[in-house]
Amino acid sequence: MKIPLPLLASSALVFVSSQALAQATETRPIELEEITVQGRANDQSGPITANGYVATSSRSATKTDTPILETPQSISTVTQKQIEDRKPQSLLEAVAYTPGTRVGGYGFDPRYDAFTIRGIDVTYTGVFRDGLRQVNSPNGLLRLEPYGLEGISILRGPAASVYGASSTGGIVDLISKRPTFLPFREVEVQTGSYGRLQGSFDLSGPVTSDNTLFYRLTGLVRDAGTEIDAVKDDRVFMAPAFTWRPTEATSLTILGEYMDATTGGTAAYLNDYATDAAGNPTSLSIGATRIFAGDARYNDFRQRQGRIGYEFEHRFNDMLTLRQRTRFSALGTNQEYYYGGSGLTRESNWGIVSDTHLESRVNTGPVGHTILSGLDVSRLSYVSKQGFGIVPIGTDPALTYREEQTQTLTGLYLQDQIKWQNWRLTLGGRHDWLSSEYDTAGFEFDRDDTKFTGRAALGYVTDLGLAPYVSYGTSFTPNPGTLLDGSVAEPTTGEQTEIGVKYDLPGANASLRAAVFDLRQDNATVYQVIDATNQQVQLDIRSRGFEIEGVASLAEGLNVQASYSYTDARILRLTPETEGNRLTSVPYHMASLWLDYTVQEGPAKGLGIAGGVRYVGSSLGDNLNRPILENEPRTYLDAALRYDLENIDPSLKGMRFQVNATNLLDERPQVCSSNYCYFDEGRKVIASLRYRW
Question: What is the pLDDT of residue 42?
């Protein structure tokens, strides 16, 4: 299938430990058991436990409540505090300060969250929601509203031994907002660049007086433009959630979402350059012009999506806990674009994902085991209809192409986390069965695959907070869609070896993480421009590199997030001309620093000032590595300013004024990826007024 160029895919939990209280009585002291209270302080959320910018535990790596220090794999976390301070407007903005994550490879394009981790594309197979895979189709990717998140866990490296279908580069687990045990209410209004108007609310708390039923309702309405007049940024978002907790041992949480979003069918600019007889660029003026490639009269890309699911947990005793997560999702798209003619794509997909596992905690002598055994089942089905023709602007062309595909994936997995003295050993294995049915123009392609994946990791946790580790893992994932020759895409497999060290600074809310890695991915699926159309191709990749990250939230009001990564991603197999070349648009060097300070005393008490810098090194604009398509290094500056108005007048308690700016200096250099060139997003300023009570 040839896809026209404009379709380029580019309730917090607070754990309060009561001390044993002795009260003088006639008998003996009374000991109070440890209790768990749910609220918003300390930014702690069920699957993520955090204090400010610093996360201390996450379920994303192992599906168990394991401290990050004791998890022998590279993990970064975007906490609720970071989200509130930076106010990201997309998934790309949310993860832009994490190491090894390359965003902006396709310049400004609000249609898709296209990005790489460690040089590996994770757009289709690396994004999870609440521990479950998000099922996507070639032109139907679920969109994210960051206001609906409590946090994000970025797990680098293979996680297929427990998650099944996922990218070798890692997974990004989006954690939805959940009901809070304590009442929480928030409303906010925003305005800003390009006529932005937005209102949002977030309400939560108990429903019943016996504190067994809790709710949360999060919503947002936005009317906005972008730096391209023909590209909208309109959205209606609603996310209801309920938690029923009849006993301390049993809980059921329902998570829902509906979103209706409209943006542009294409955000591309015309490319103009001279070529030789073979079609190769010859002019230094190569690349994107400032001429928009589409037409504002026919450029709406509307997507309606919804999901409903539940999380069930029952603790039988201190040894056994049963968990089940299930989610149904569906979306429909209507994408209009103009590129020498009118094009239309209508695509719908639906998917169901279910994961059931039993966690067993047992001891064999001095050795402790946390054993996870589970069954994971998912099913994806999509239908895509496309049309392109020379018709009057505003008129839909006939839909002359149709394709549909159904994929079913079933996996059994077993994991054992072994603890002996200071040693931490993780062993995991999973076997998947994949069935795929593809139909287009009366031609059917069916295939069945089976694959075993595993993970082995060893760490040593010292009493000083230092934890070196080594890990090895493999991955396996099916791919939707077809290749350049019309055949069904092969499943992608991969493996990675990683050596790292983690350090939690004693006596400080701060941590450092560093890792070196060597990974390989076979039959990786990527898009590249061939003959002026966007084609899906498969190749083998090898990526090696180094990463370091530091985060801290200090008592003096200072929050810090800093990272550096070096990535050398090379092509092992594609064409003879590209063997050994650097992978398109993956820079060697990336670095970032975010500093956030809140004045603690004096007349300016409550004033928050923040600034960030993101550096992206040079990269190459195609897999042939032609110097004429080289992307120059670039640096972006971000900033934020906020003030709690109660410091002016106590009657304004709960009100906060905040301004956030991204790309403050309005740097908009050209960026080329997969043989086509774009422009980075320019300056964006958003002002907000929030009230909490």
Answer: 39
d(CA 168, CA 166): 7
In whole angstroms, how far apart are CA 29 and each of 35, 159, 276, 610?
Answer: 18, 48, 89, 49
| pLDDT recorded at residue 9 | 36
Q: Give the per-residue pLDDT at 532.
A: 53
Digit-coded pLDDT (tens) for 520-541: 999 988 766 655 556 778 899 9
User: How buried is residue 314: exposed, middle or buried, by Cβ count under 10 Å (0-12/13-18/19+)?
Assistant: middle
Instruction: For residues 515 and 498, give the distance between their C-alpha atoms in angstroms, rounded to a whole number.
Output: 7
Tell me the residue ranges of DSSP E strands in 478-532: 492-504, 510-530
Question: What whole-number distance in Å separates Cα of residue 232 and Cα of residue 223?
Answer: 8
Q: CA end-to-end span of the chain, whole Å?
A: 54
**pLDDT < 50 stretches in the chain:** 1-45
**Bridge partners (DSSP) listed for residue 608:** 598, 642
pLDDT digits (tens, 9 = 90+) for 573-592: 998 999 999 999 999 999 99
Q: Contact 70/420 with Cβ under 8 angstroms?
A: no
Ordered by where they begin, the domains of the chain are 50-692 (2.40.170.20)
- pLDDT of amino acid 16: 31
360, two tokens: 């067993």
Give the separation between CA 222 and CA 235, rounded to whole angstroms: 5
SS (H, E, C) 531-565: CCEEEEEEEEEEEEEEEEEEEEECCCCEEEEEEEE
